[in-house]
Amino acid sequence: MLKIGIIGAGMMGGTHASTYANIYGVELVGVADERVEAAQRLAAEHEARSYGSIEELIQVENPDIIDICLPTDLHKAHVLYAASCGKHVFCEKPIAMSVEDALEMTEACSAAGVTFMIGHALRFSPDYQMAKEIVEEGKLGTIGTVRMIREGAPPGWSAWFKDKSRSGGVIVDLGIHELDWLRSTFGEPLRVYAKIAEEGLPGEHAFVSIRMKSGVIAHLTASWALPDGFRSFLELAGTEGLMKLDSDDHKPIAVTRRGAGAELPSSSWESPLNRSPYEIELRHFVDCVRTGTEPLVTGTDAAKSLELALAALRSAQTGEVVTFE
Ligand SMILES: NC(=O)c1ccc[n+]([C@@H]2O[C@H](COP(=O)([O-])OP(=O)(O)OC[C@H]3O[C@@H](n4cnc5c(N)ncnc54)[C@H](O)[C@@H]3O)[C@@H](O)[C@H]2O)c1
Prior knowledge:
Blueprint: E1 2-7, H1 11-20, E2 26-32, H2 36-45, E3 49-51, H3 54-61, E4 65-68, H4 75-84, E5 88-92, H5 99-112, E6 116-119, H6 126-136, E7 143-152, H7 164-167, H8 169-186, E8 189-197, E9 205-212, E10 217-223, E11 230-238, E12 241-246, E13 253-257, H9 277-291, H10 299-318, E14 322-323
Parallel strand pairs: 1-2, 1-4, 2-3, 4-5, 5-6, 7-10
Antiparallel strand pairs: 7-11, 8-9, 8-14, 9-10, 11-12, 12-13
The structure holds nicotinamide-adenine-dinucleotide.
């Protein structure tokens, strides 16, 4: 049985706690939060014990795994501490607030010989996995353009999201999901240009244009300007056809191909066996810890996704195109 300690009893801490409850061979032993009542509430729901800090939790429970669900600016210090105690670490995305910090965290985990994975959940979303496979199998021919949208209401449950020095804002906190998926499917970026609108809006609304080294042109809308609800959208246009994936549609995946036999993959959303991306993600992490294999999303990989998101933010702030070496 692998013992798990969750640090941060907020939105994602709660999601991870319920997810571990569905995974065989793991036990949530402790939850730490500076808000003691929040830690107590979540711990009680899962028959675990509550603590006020990572130090106390590790000292008393000696878990195998530390799962960090804290505001992004606190990831680094907690990952370094967990690694120094020899704990395997799962850390929510974005990995950190700077690429230097991300690489330092990755090196510390590697030196400590512990498994380190970042929660880029779209890599584990059945629909986005299917889209990646369709691209890799060449079913749409050569892809020319990629259009992506991720939009929702501002994350009103915690004030720290509004502080760009803590969350990075809508591109770094929200848009990084798509930017990471884009990199994992099409390789590294060549240049990026972005604009952010926030004046008069309840939240930020950003456009990001990316030229990939492969020649693919991508566009992302990342928004916290919706009054409520949530939507994600992906469109891939290739020489052989078009694919659309829209969370608002009843049948969210549609593929139209040139010529005969335009086969339509049935959406994983309709499958009774459909599991949440978080469950697939955390199962993968636990398997990696058990078998000593490298996770799908390493610290180095997450650092590259952060580098792209930060470059987009810099472009929006300076009005300049940012080109990668
Ligand atoms: N993968 C996803 O889909 C997804 C979705 C939302 C958020 N996130 C990420 O997850 C992380 C957490 O986000 P959230 O929405 O759960 O935030 P949250 O504000 O709901 O939860 C953070 C918790 O950390 C606690 N905390 C703050 N400082 C602390 C400290 N020093 N020691 C102990 N506890 C402390 C807070 O009291 C709070 O309970 C962020 O990095 C965010 O970007 C990921």
